[in-house]
Design a protein that fits this description.
The chain has about 230 residues and is of the alpha+beta class. The chain contains 6 helices and 13 strands.
C-alpha cells in the first residue's frame, strides 16, 4: 500500500498495479474502512481497479493528518477474503436477440465463433464489479472470456440505448442510461441499474458479482424490456 498526494485536498491510496480479484478485494475493504473511520473529514471516496481516491475537507484536516489517519485505518485491516464474504451476487436477465444485440454479429466475426457460442460464453461467466463511473451506475465488470474479448468501436455511437450490455477488451458493462458509447453491444437487460430514489443510487456496488441469464424475446418484453430506443 502506498499513499500519494494529488492536490491540496485529494490523495490516492494504491494497493497494487495489477487488476485482479485479490487487489479488488483490498480496494473494497479499504473503502469500507476509510468511510467508517474518517467520515468526519472525508468529502468523497472513489474506488477503482487498484486504488481509492480520497477527498478531504481542508478545514478539518491537512495532508499530513490525512495520511496518518489513513495508515491507522488501513493497518492490517483489509483482506480480499473479507470482501468476498460480504459481496452479493446479482443475476440479471439479458436478451441477446437481433433487435438489441447491435454488434453481436461483429463479435462473432471477430472471434470466429457462432452466435450461440458467443452468447453461451458471455452468459456463463460470473463477473466482478471492479469500478463504477463514466455515468451514474455504470459498472465496469471483469473479466470477459478472452475468446470473445473485442476492442471498443473506433467510432462511438452517439446514443447507446439504456440497458445495453457491451464488451470492450476484457471488460463487460451495462449502460444504465442512454449515453454515447463505443462498447460492442451484444444484448440488453430489462433490469434497472439506477434507482434515483434509493440511497445507494446504483443497483451494483464495488465488489459485487454479476451473472447474466440469457432470456428469450417473450420474457424480455414481460420483464419490461423496450425496443423503441433503437
Amino acid at each position: 500500500m502506498r499513499i500519494e498526494g494529488i492536490n491540496e485536498s485529494t490523495c490516492i491510496v494504491y494497493f497494487g498495479d495489477t487488476i485482479c480479484d485479490e487487489t479488488a478485494g483490498l480496494v473494497k475493504q479499504a473503502t469500507d474502512n476509510i468511510r467508517a473511520a474518517l467520515s468526519d473529514v472525508i468529502t468523497d471516496l472513489v474506488p477503482s481497479y487498484t486504488s481509492v481516491m480520497v477527498c478531504y475537507d481542508l478545514e478539518r484536516i491537512d495532508r499530513f493528518g490525512i495520511h496518518t489517519r489513513l495508515r491507522q485505518a488501513l493497518e492490517g485491516g483489509a483482506t480480499a477474503t473479507q470482501d468476498d464474504a460480504q459481496a452479493q451476487t446479482l443475476e440479471l436477465p439479458v436478451y441477446y436477440g437481433p433487435e438489441v444485440a447491435l454488434d453481436l454479429k461483429d463479435v462473432c466475426e471477430f472471434s470466429g465463433l457462432s452466435t450461440d457460442e458467443v452468447i453461451r460464453i458471455h452468459s456463463e461467466q460470473t463477473y466482478r464489479v471492479y469500478a463504477i463511473g463514466f455515468s451514474p451506475g455504470f459498472a465496469f465488470l471483469g473479466s470477459t472470456d478472452q475468446r470473445i474479448a473485442m476492442p471498443r468501436k473506433s467510432t462511438p455511437r452517439l446514443k447507446v440505448p439504456v440497458g445495453s450490455v457491451g464488451i470492450a477488451g476484457s471488460q463487460t458493462a451495462i449502460y444504465p442510461s442512454a449515453t454515447p458509447g463505443g462498447w460492442q453491444i451484444v444484448g440488453r437487460t430489462p433490469s434497472k441499474m439506477v434507482d434515483w430514489d434509493s440511497e445507494s443510487l446504483a443497483l451494483a456496488q464495488i465488489g459485487d458479482r454479476i451473472k447474466f441469464r440469457s432470456i428469450d424475446r417473450e420474457e424480455f418484453i414481460k420483464l419490461g424490456g423496450q425496443f423503441d430506443e433503437l
